[in-house]
Amino acid sequence: MSAITVASQMGIRGITDSTPLELRPNASQDQINAVLRAIYRQVLGNDHLFGADVAELASAESLLRQGSLTVREFVRLIAKSEAYKKRFFYPNSQTRAIELNFKHLLGRAPTDGKDIARHLDIYQAGGHGAEIDSYIDSPEYLESFGDNIVPYPRGFEYRRSYSTRDFTNMFALYGGYANNDRSQGPRPRLMTALATGFTPAIRRIGVRGLLPPSPISKHLGPPTGASDRMFCVEVTRLLNPDSALATSSRVRKSNQQIFVSADQLSATMQRVLKSGAKIVSVRSA
C-alpha cells in the first residue's frame, strides 16, 4: 500500500501533501496574506482571532508586512500574547499546555516524559515567556524553520531520526484539519503514552475529528478508557534511578519526578515506598 494511500485513509493527506510556506523578500501582498493565514492557523491551533485579539496583534502584523519582523519573531509574539494564553495556557493543565506548545511551535509532539519534565522545569523557573523562548530559540526550531519558514506539522513526515512513537504521539494530538485545539479540552492527550512508554492507538481522522480505529492500524498501547489525568510524584532517596519505575522521570537535585496516570498512581506510590524512597509530594501535572 503506498504512503499516499495510507495518508488518505488516515485523514492526513491534506497535511502530508502541503508545501511549507516561506516569507521571501519582496513578497506580494497575496503571498504575505497566505503566510499570515498559515501562521495563525498553526500557532493558534486552527482557531480564529476576534475583536481584542486582532487589535493586540495588529502592530506586530504590520511590522511583518513591512519586512521589519521575521516569521520567527512574529510566531514568538503570538505565542506570548494574551490571545494565545487565554486559549492554551490559562484553561489547561501545564502538561496539556506543553503538549500544545510542542505541536504549535515545533510541529511535533513530545517524544517522552523527559520532554515534559524539562519544560515543566523551564516554566517553573522562568514562567510562560521563558517556556515559549525555549522552543523558538532551540536548535531544532532554527534547523527546521529558520527565520522565515512558517512552522508546520512535521510529525507525520518520515525521518530517519524519528521513531514510531513520534508518529503515533503526533496523531494523538492531531484532531483533524477542520478541528481546532481549543475544542479538544484541557486534559493531556499523551499522558498514558508518556508515563508508560506505550504508543497510543492510531485513529483515522474524519471531517469532524477522530473516527474509530482504522482497519490499517493496531492499538499498540494499554487498554483505552484509562483516566487521562496525570500526576507528578516527587521522591527522594530513590535507590535505583535507572529502574523501570524511573523511565519517564528526570533527576533534579536530590529529588526525582515521576509522571504517572491517575489509575497508576496508587501502585506507583507503593512501589516507591517499597524501594526505600520517600515521597516528598504528589501534585496534578
TrEMBL record:
Ribosomal protein listed as a keyword: no
Localization in the cell: Cellular thylakoid membrane
Keywords: Antenna complex, Membrane, Photosynthesis, Phycobilisome, Thylakoid
UniProt membrane topology term: Peripheral membrane protein
PBS-linker domain residues: 1-182
Principal cellular location given in the protein's record: membrane
Entries under InterPro entries matching the protein: CpcD-like_dom, PBS_linker_dom, PBS_linker_sf, Phycobilisome
Pfam family name, one: CpcD
Keyword Thylakoid: yes
Gene3D superfamilies with a match to the protein in the record: Phycobilisome linker domain (1.10.3130.20)
Domain CpcD-like per the UniProt entry, residue ranges: 228-285
Cited PANTHER family: PHYCOBILIPROTEIN APCE, PHYCOBILISOME 32.1 KDA LINKER POLYPEPTIDE, PHYCOCYANIN-ASSOCIATED, ROD 2-RELATED
Protein name as annotated: Phycobilisome rod-core linker polypeptide
Species of origin: Thermostichus vulcanus str. 'Rupite'
